[in-house]
Specification:
Structural class: alpha+beta
Number of helices: 3
Protein name: GNAT family N-acetyltransferase
Largest sheet: 7 strands, mixed
Helix content: 10-25%
Organism: Rahnella inusitata
Order of helices and strands: EHEEEHEHEE
CATH topology: Aminopeptidase
Keywords: Acyltransferase, Transferase
Number of strands: 7
Strand order of the largest sheet: 1-2-3-4-5-7-6
Pfam families: Acetyltransf_1 (PF00583)
C-alpha cells in the first residue's frame, strides 16, 4: 500500500477531519497558552497550499505550506493518522511542500512544533531541519514549550 499525495486548498472536505484529529492529539499535551494549532481557514494574510495523502480509499494525512504576508514560508498542520504511521507518509507530504516552496521561488522553510513531540522533531532533523530562533509572529513571545526549526531547500 503506497500513499498518493495531492495538492489542494483549505476547502478540501477531508482536511478539516484530519486537522481535528491532530488537535485532539496535541491539545492535551500543552497548556492553552502554548497551543498553536491555528485554524488554517483563518490564515487570510498570506498564501496557503495544502497537501493530502491518500492510501487506497482513506485520507491518511495532511500538511500545509503557509507563506505569510511578510514572505516567511512555514510548514503547518503536519499530521498522519496513527493507522498509517511508519510508512513514510509524513516525509512525502514534506517533500511535496518543499517542491512547492521552490516552485514559488522561496528557499527557507520554517516550522514550529512542541517539545513533547519527539518523533516529529526526530523526523524533521532526519529531513535536514535544524533548530533555530523563534521566527515571524513567534518572535513576539517565544514559547519555552516550542521548538523552532528551519531548512534551506536548494
Amino acid at each position: 500500500m503506497s500513499a498518493q499525495i495531492f495538492e489542494t486548498d483549505v476547502a478540501h472536505p477531508h482536511l478539516a477531519r484530519l486537522i481535528a484529529e491532530l488537535d485532539a492529539y496535541q491539545y492535551p499535551l500543552y497548556p492553552p497558552e502554548s497551543f498553536y494549532g491555528v485554524n488554517i481557514t483563518e490564515l487570510d494574510e498570506g498564501d496557503i497550499t495544502c497537501f493530502m495523502a491518500r492510501v487506497d480509499d482513506d485520507w491518511a494525512g495532511c500538511a500545509c505550506l503557509y507563506i505569510s504576508k511578510h514572505r516567511i514560508a512555514e510548514m503547518k498542520r503536519v499530521y498522519v493518522n496513527p493507522l498509517f504511521r511508519g510508512q513514510g507518509i509524513a516525509s512525502l507530504l514534506i517533500a511535496a511542500m518543499e517542491k512547492k516552496l521552490k516552485e514559488l521561488g522561496h528557499t527557507d522553510l520554517y516550522l514550529e512544533t512542541g517539545v513533547f513531540q519527539e518523533k516529529a522533531i526526530t523526523l524533521y532533523e532526519k529531513l535536514g531541519y535544524a533548530r533555530t530562533d523563534a521566527f515571524g509572529d513567534y518572535n513576539q513571545s517565544p514559547d519555552p514549550l516550542s521548538v523552532y526549526m528551519m531548512k534551506t531547500v536548494a
